[in-house]
TrEMBL record:
Residues annotated as transmembrane: none
Any one GO molecular function term: hydrolase activity
One Pfam family recorded for the sequence: Sulfotransfer_5
Tagged with keyword Hydrolase: yes
UniProt KW Metal-binding keyword: no
The entry's keywords: Amino-acid biosynthesis, Branched-chain amino acid biosynthesis, Hydrolase
PANTHER family reported in the protein's UniProt record: AMINO-ACID AMINOTRANSFERASE, AMINODEOXYCHORISMATE LYASE
Protein name, as recorded: HAD family hydrolase
UniProt cross-references to Gene3D superfamilies, sorted A to Z: P-loop containing nucleotide triphosphate hydrolases
Length: 252
């Protein structure tokens, strides 16, 4: 499918934070016959500019471009024959102020959110050192307002809890908001790793590699995990919650 007005391929930027079913959502779109995907293409740029020590840092810096302009060139490159949708999984905290954003103007931008308490409880299992910026919610809200100001309305916001509770209904609403047809193939996928997965997959993707579809909601378990966290970590979630609630006002 191409944009009927321009005849060009459809490029979707899904803006998310970590531990937010973002990889499962990428799996869902990749299971469409008309779609290709990319996994966190600005990760190496982010690591190089910040100097942060993330799991797999050296491998990420080796495997991905470290120039944001080079990444953008890839994101705007022609799609393979037979594919008309390019789904891009982006982490909001990767989008440093030095990274230009003009390339997003022709994209269909959407925002994936999750209760920050649940994000945090999951995040620390792979990387115990965490700050509010690591969750990306502040940057996500900035990007949301940037897109809303540009298009004159709120772009679609989808909550991971809604996807887990009712995958078909949530994905149908998302596809409608993105002006693409819903495809039932998005509801399940083969188990295992994918060539499209980032090289950081061994540290983060064990759960999604075992999956064949969206897991059901397990809020009680996540909240129990959150209650066990140190007060310093709980304060991060407290600071993030108003941002999550503001974004939630625009949930589709």
């Amino acid at each position: 499918m191409t944009d009927q007005m321009t005849g060009e391929s459809i490029r979707i930027a899904m803006w998310s934070g970590p531990r937010n079913i973002s990889t499962a959502m990428m799996r869902s779109f990749e299971n469409r016959a008309d779609t290709i995907v990319v996994d966190e293409p600005f990760y190496a740029v982010y690591l190089k500019e910040t100097g942060l020590d993330h799991p797999g840092r050296d491998l990420i810096l080796k495997e991905q471009p470290t120039s944001w302009q080079a990444v953008v060139d890839d994101l705007l490159a022609p799609l393979p024959a037979g594919r008309s949708i390019f789904y891009q999984k982006h982490m909001c905290h990767h989008m440093l102020p030095s990274i230009g954003l003009d390339w997003t103007k022709g994209f269909r931008n959407a925002f994936l959110v999750r209760d920050p308490r649940h994000m945090l409880a999951s995040y620390i299992k792979s990387r115990p050192d965490v700050t509010l910026k690591d969750l990306g919610l502040e940057r996500q809200l900035e990007l949301f307002h940037m897109v809303a100001d540009r298009i004159g309305k709120a772009p679609p916001v989808i909550d991971s809890a809604d996807v887990q509770a009712e995958p078909k209904g949530a994905l149908m609403r998302l596809c409608e908001a993105l002006d693409i047809p819903f495809d039932a193939a998005m509801l399940s996928w083969p188990k295992g790793p994918r060539d499209s997965d980032g090289v950081w997959a061994p540290w983060w993707y064990a759960g999604v590699e075992r999956s064949t579809g969206f897991a059901g909601r397990n809020d009680a378990s996540r909240e129990a995990e959150f209650e066990k966290l140190d007060d310093s970590l709980k304060r991060i979630a407290d600071a993030a919650m108003p941002i999550y609630e503001e974004m939630g006002r625009y949930r589709i």
